[in-house]
Amino acid sequence: MYPQDYFASPLDGETILAGTFGELRNNHFHSGLDIKTKQREGLKVYAAASGYISRIKIAHFGYGKALYITHPNGYTTVYAHLQRFSDKIESFIKKKQYDQESFEVEVFPSNNELILTKGEVIAFSGNTGSSGGPHLHYEIRDNQERSINPLLFGIKVKDTKKPIVKSIYAYPIDELSHVNNSNLKQKLRLIPLQNGDYKVEDIKAYGKIGFAINTIDRQDLAANKNGVYKIETALNGMPNFTINFKRFSFNETKHLNRLIDYPHYSEKKERLQKLFLDTNNPLSMYDNLVDDGYVMVYDSIASLYKIKVEDFEGNTTIIDLNINGDTTPISETSTNFTSQYYINRQENVILEKDKITVNIPKETFYDSFFMDFQVHSDTVKVHDKNRAANKYFTINYDVTGYSPEDLKQVYIARLVGWNNYPSYSSTKQKDDVLYTRTKNLGTYCLARDTVAPTIKPVNFTDGKWMSKYRFLKLKIEDKQSGISNYRATVNGKWILMEYDYKTDMLVHDFKDNVVKETNNNLKVIVTDNVGNSTTFEATFHRK
Ligand SMILES: [Zn+2]
What we know:
The structure is a single chain. The chain is mainly β. The protein is about 5% helix and about 45% strand. The protein has four helices and 48 strands. The strands form nine sheets. Strands 15, 16, 17, 18, 19, 20, 21, 23, 24, 25, 26 and 27 form a twelve-stranded mixed β-sheet that branches. Strands 1, 4, 6, 7, 8, 10, 11, 13, 14 and 22 form a ten-stranded antiparallel β-sheet that branches. A hairpin with a 2-residue loop joins strand 32 (about 375) and strand 33. The longest helix is centred in the first third of the chain and has 14 residues, at about 85-100. The chain is globular, with a radius of gyration of 27 Å. The protein starts with 16 loop residues before the first strand and ends with a strand. The relative contact order is 0.10. It binds zinc ion. Zinc ion (ZN) binds next to loops.
């Protein structure tokens, strides 16, 4: 089993969670704990155990500023969204940043460079990268780079509350199956009981049926809606499905999209966890499967289906559902969309019309299906957003005959939202082909971004004395294709500027001690994704 007292809490005080391990997130399972930091940044973060820093990564998105500590027992702890590192780590990484002339860096120090003892301050908590508010993301990985639920290592979180079930749905799986006289997915009526359990209004069903629920767990010391630890089901007393969130590997995390009802999520933003194993579901967290968790109803006998939802502390919620067999066939069944474009998931598929070609590698989708593929001028419909792709496919535009002038500032856009906003999709050109690699089905077209980024000084004006200032701040924005890169120099020498995409801020810390002269000529160049660039220049003085 996992060592219980080896890892200390990385923060002072009681552990309060804003997110649990395995929680369902956008295209992934949450791989650690999100520990609350009193809505503040700058709390001390401690090494959970002795070891050495084996990786430091600074990125605009994702984990922002992150540290990885490898411990002698083979585990690695991860600390993410940090505001800044301790002085010894900070000076180590700044040197790399100045060497590489880049804010974004990733280094793998060897085991004798940055050695730490248990409880040593390694960083200060923050909100960097793709973080929606100040917190510490904390992970424990094993030596095979699998994430393990940190609560299994003895971290205590106060939780006496039962998980809450928000909705339950039934799915007739094949053409002959039906629930309450319908072949379509049905929302069932959930009746909360006094003790926190639930009863579901009796249903009539026939054939192969599956169920899915939306469930959350709250802990005692915060109102955050977190994930549950385990879900089990039983049919007439016999267990037929278990899922638990103890551990997973990184190559399976994207398959969250197979666990949830993805079309439902895409349309309604509600995550329903399926309590059955679909075909081509590679996830490893299932157990005790009988009939892959499906309920088979082929006579008029009544069955009792029970669902047990459990949090890490063992608080459980039970849902009871009576299924009455209904052998009367229903007259109408739903008709599925068909087209001449059949995507066989076992094969590489190339779709082609006019100047547009779409290349879909095999096993991009979980099922084979008929694709809605339409081309009108430079607009291409590649089905719709309600289907998940777990591999990249490529959309190619043949631009033979376009002059370089015609193609200047042109990018491939995915139309998003009610107003069909042309969202930039990473666009590259090879010979006479403009292409993008994407995992998003939907409608794409060519768009042009003619507007260069804007650069505005925030805490200074041209000619200002800045002797008493700690930071130099600018705001950079690009409304359409987005910022691709930025570069700042003072008197011709590169200076580190930290970029935060959430606030559009570009910040230099004078404590880096690279701005040493009295008269300083600042030059900032910002380029967008189609190559439009803006140069900002100003002078400032320091003594
Ligand atoms: Zn997190």
